């Protein structure tokens, strides 16, 4: 009997890797992000490693950057989440499949249907990452001149969630009797038309699809703002987040779980998963060398632009192979500059190495031997800085195989990560309750995520 | 060398069968319409029969009828097209996958992306059935009080098509060079931002996905009105249609192909496929008996309501087991009443049988032995009433297996239907040209479907 807190692991797979140099890494697949055969194999590898879920971020436009930087991006062509995840459902059996969908640029009826359909197709493995869309340029693809205002986006998101979950509840779980003898296909008493009329949406319903296998697909949120954290506390069952230190992680964790207390939700019913960039070596030195190699593949022009932004000072004139010079005070964010200066000092990085680190990935990273990585993951778990991680891989397939072959067994040995899936659905594997149907189920002994 | 005109065959698979009694037929799967394992097997059977395509109709609401009739409907729960077709792409290799998507209730950026993604996932087998949405109740699920006006729907559809195809052309076919050495992933000269600003849409682009494998997925249209036929003539490569007699079929065919002449498109570049309900028996008598059995499974209450509507006269008081009595004149459509009276006389149907025929399927039907069905299909083909058919099956799996095992070999023997797929993509199998990329290709020797 395992009494230890269990780690939850997602893998960020759109982009297959966030690191801009990854597609050039020796032995990596340059087209990893846009090759269906590869993606099927990655999903199967994740399942072999007993990962909870495959996570697809999503952006409604080509990322906002000058063509000269964009041309180096391996994510400029990506599959669309619903179609890709439905295809991967057939290549896997237990892996959760989480798609990002925007509440700002979509319609609740379509989103409710697509997730319900994906949940049925995958046998109950769908999850919805609710975003209000971070890239402001997306608005230009949907008839707007500028992005919808932040507060308004979140108000719309909250109502969108109510409509979608209300549509998922259109049919009772046992509505479909298919009685060949009498010719009755479903019990009409078990169908409810939503008749929603709110500030943003008016949706009659019912949905034209049976209730999802999980009741509702698992709800995910990644907002960082006050409004984003509140939405997560009220509705989400997984929170993705970006935290750069254990202390930051603890603060975020306490904040969101505290908000859950206030709205009367059990803390266990939301799993907080910070994004972690993981580079595995057989030794610490080897892992560091891999990362240095990877960073060296970031183009210097884009790298130096990132460094200039972080410093609030034009860095293009610095000697690339010398240490970072003293930087005069400026109006730029002092904390950002100090973080960069401190990073250069700590890791003894040249200007070039520092710039390439920032142009690659500069957030939370676990770089080391398998035991060292497991130590850090366990530390975050025990310190209540997280309930697990959304793992970002350095390059594919090597970085993924290293994690599954070396880190996963180490986590399993420590009794903090599953050896076998506990159930058939994502919800069962995450030990999350099944939401009650607001129109048909009694309120006892059921989930608290409902409006 | 085959010189004969070739028949094109689609299969209507959402609903798996349009006949409301089908799920009750002896040996049929009652859940055929909503069972993924069955649907995969059906798609594989169609592929074994060398069908051109699997066609998913789509409706954005639960069909508009009273609960007491609705409760007998086996299509009230259906998969959503993009997710189902992406799942079926993995279970098949050559079968075309046509999804219906509404230009009235969707956004062009989303639709362009999803079809492009489906086309990449399926290796170039996607098709888009452009509809303006026939069910007026759909509007209630998208914040409207009533359906968008017909002419306005078609104006929006035309612009929607221009935007979607323009987004598909965002990247040249050879944009992605993935040069690991130089670090250039795509050639920026081969990316075009659409910058569309029109009456209905303003969409900057570019699309965040490579050009579809087929250039564009195959364009399908099913509009019957003047505006619908014009849209088909201007843009479509397949027209689905409902025609009840050979003469009607010829008129429609001549009308639409004549419209193509006027806009300067080659007649071959649009395949006209009327819907045909097909019931196969080893003999004519057996086929008729199957159909009578099937019709008898339609509930009498719904059936009599259909009959009353067609007659413009309340039929609920008629003796169900007697012939149709004389009907007094009324304001109802005279042609509809005459068609029904003539049908009852020709097939010597009782009131019950007539009502159940109307409640089942009363459009074009080929009911007979394999040779008789092939005769009729060949007749339509040679008489230029169609380029093939969109086959509607009576019940599943039996009706499908009968067609593939018995009718397909008969068509092949006559040299009017393929024995092997000609190509890898839907476009290749239909012998349709690949659309040129308006931003990157020269105008020579390429498709004429472009704006
Ligand atoms: C791990 C992670 C994944 C995210 N994925 C997406 C995404 O796919 N699409 C998107 O528009 N935003 C994404 N975001 C951004 C968040 O949705 C959110 O906009 C951002 O954290 C800023 O928070 P705020 O919107 O509450 O101000 C992601 C954030 C994190 C931390
Ligand atoms: C074979 C066939 C399939 C159709 N499938 C759909 C469909 O899936 N969704 C829909 O809204 N309309 C569908 N329609 C309806 C047409 O799109 C169109 O609305 C109808 O034929 C009336 O024509 P009009 O809209 O030009 O007046 C279909 C029609 C036919 C003949």
UniProtKB/TrEMBL annotation, chains A, B:
<keyword id="KW-0288">FMN</keyword>
<keyword id="KW-0285">Flavoprotein</keyword>
<dbReference type="InterPro" id="IPR016215">
    <property type="entry name" value="NTA_MOA"/>
</dbReference>
<protein>
    <submittedName>
        <fullName>LLM class flavin-dependent oxidoreductase</fullName>
        <ecNumber>1.-.-.-</ecNumber>
    </submittedName>
</protein>
<feature type="domain" description="Luciferase-like">
    <location>
        <begin position="23"/>
        <end position="380"/>
    </location>
</feature>
<dbReference type="InterPro" id="IPR011251">
    <property type="entry name" value="Luciferase-like_dom"/>
</dbReference>
<dbReference type="Pfam" id="PF00296">
    <property type="entry name" value="Bac_luciferase"/>
</dbReference>
<keyword id="KW-0560">Oxidoreductase</keyword>
<dbReference type="InterPro" id="IPR051260">
    <property type="entry name" value="Diverse_substr_monoxygenases"/>
</dbReference>
<keyword id="KW-0503">Monooxygenase</keyword>
<comment type="similarity">
    <text>Belongs to the NtaA/SnaA/DszA monooxygenase family.</text>
</comment>
<dbReference type="GO" id="GO:0016491">
    <property type="term" value="F:oxidoreductase activity"/>
</dbReference>
<dbReference type="InterPro" id="IPR036661">
    <property type="entry name" value="Luciferase-like_sf"/>
</dbReference>
